[in-house]
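Give me the fold.
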Amino acid sequence: MVPRQLPAAVPDFCGRLAHVAALDALLAESERNAGGGATVVALDGSAGAGKSTLAVWWAHRVQDRFPGGTLFVNLRGFGPSAPLPPQVVLTDFLTALGVAERRIPEGVEAQGALFRSLVTVRRALVVLDNAGSAEQVRPLLPGAAGSLALVTSRGALSELLVSEAVRRVAVDVFDAVDAVRLVESVVGEARTAAEPDAVEELVGVCARLPLAVRVAATRVASRPFLSVADVVEEIREEQRGLIGMEGPWRGLSGVRAVFDWSYDRLDPVHARVFRLLGLHPMPEFGAPAVAALAALDLRSVTHVLEELAEQHLVEPVARLQYRMHDLLHDYAAYRADLDETPVAREEAVARLLGWYAAVADAADRLVYPVSARIPVELPVVQAPVRDREEALGWLRSERAVLSAVHRIALNQGMYDVAIALALSSRHLGLGPRSWWPEELEAKSRGIEAARVSGVREAEAFLRVLRGHSHRSAGDQAAAEADFRDVAESAERSGDQVLRRRALAGLANLREAQERYDEAAEYHLAVWEATRQEGDSAAEAITLGNLCLVNAKRGRFDEALDYAQRAWELRSRTGNPLIIAYAEDDLALARQGLREHDTAIGLWEKVVDVYARHSGAESHLATALEAMAVSLVATGRDDRAVHDLRRAATILADLDDPRADLVRRRAEDLASARADGPGQSADRPQAGQSGSGSGDS
């Protein structure tokens, strides 16, 4: 699918004829330039001048000339939230361009190289809105001719102008004619013609800034009983109190006066919701989060947000999703400081952070239904997720917000929230490797929150989870340190559950180190502990691990015994994915005992389940690879070739280094079939499937 990521363009765009002509000329020049690099155009100008509106409108107008797709991102270079790092943006761009999450490399340089390679073979339009610096933009630029990058920024990005040969188009305030035309498009031709002098004065008091003109004109349109001259006088009254403004509003008295005037005419409920939006860490938000922030029901807050959208104070971007201009977000935060008491602000932020933590916790429970967890006191909320797919989608779409909320919670001493958000960060491990540092950072923040608040159980639990993350990332020394520290602490305190979790971590680490006998000893100790605790979910996971480690030791009778015990426990859950894990183990053991038909029957069921569940791709590939062994053993080489090729494709999408090896085995087997019986081939290897987990 070709990505088309542009937000909606304003329906009443007007003016900017010279700017549109300049952009059209640069596009034509780009299309003639077959041998040079990509064209990069920078729209720079003051806040509220209409850079983003122009960029989005023009990009909609020309995107059909870019068959490779249109990519868009708000880089948040100016605003209350932290600027988006290039690594985060590149991950999203590569995903949109069809790169499987686990094939996205680590590091900005590697990601940028892959991104440029992809847009070299496809003409793409890249819109980088609200850039903060040249360093933020440079890794996101396409390299080859044919593609075009359009960058908007309040700064001139002079370093890019020199080093990247960027073509600059300055965007100033409207001229008087365009400003009047915008008023006319909003309030109508009749009212504009009836008061031409007042309309000219209106655009003058708005300093001809498009954002201020649009907000003022929208308010005029919604008050037909007021003359334009009355509105002008009201705005001037607001301006008289703004002399000597400091900080980010210096030089923007026209915008501030319009915002003040528009805000003062909101009814109390709408005004309260608007100013509380300034307490949200980002200028993009969902209605359910705003409902928590304002302590209103979803229906009421959605009605308020739609009314604010009518006044162009927020903008709808999807169902129940909204955003606001950075200046409006700053202004809302200013009004919250002015019009809300410190206690009211603290309570609103606490509600918002608690809501995000509670929804993240609910989503985590859907993604990991039987995983170990610890109790954390959170508010009761109605989570906007109903199943595993929705839960994983919500966690991923809210990734940046959750990270910002997590930092705020830790800084403000909301330690339960910080711990809960750390616990729910494990989904990042299912994403591309570029997300894994975020997971480690989140768990470290949770550990710090637990340490400061004296919640030792949470601190130790998160240390174990962080150890597993270190192991997955290949940092065996850091994993060993976390597991060892927790195990020693548990020995001193006599906490058997904690000791069992640390030993499970060490067991999985020993398997990664191919020290299978030591791994088996640890797993046996963990199994004994789970039976004493009566924790059937943890016991089932441990039995699966014992099956796998004994298969790797060549002890298939023992592996089958453990697999059968695990199946008995897991089948009680009624969860198809959890049952499939157990049947995967059974198939592996049966194969080791040369019961190939039975193994194939089990794997056919397992493959069907894995294929229907996001996040099970790795299990699917290894099940297909392992089943191929039994298919060859029973003379079904054609099916084995098909399954190996399918496994190789999946592994390639996951950026798994085994992909090439599996593909070679498939082709060798196919060649041997073509050469006739008696020819040897590099057969698939057994003992590679199974459901083992470190989360016990």
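The CA atoms of residues 103 and 357 lie 30 Å apart.
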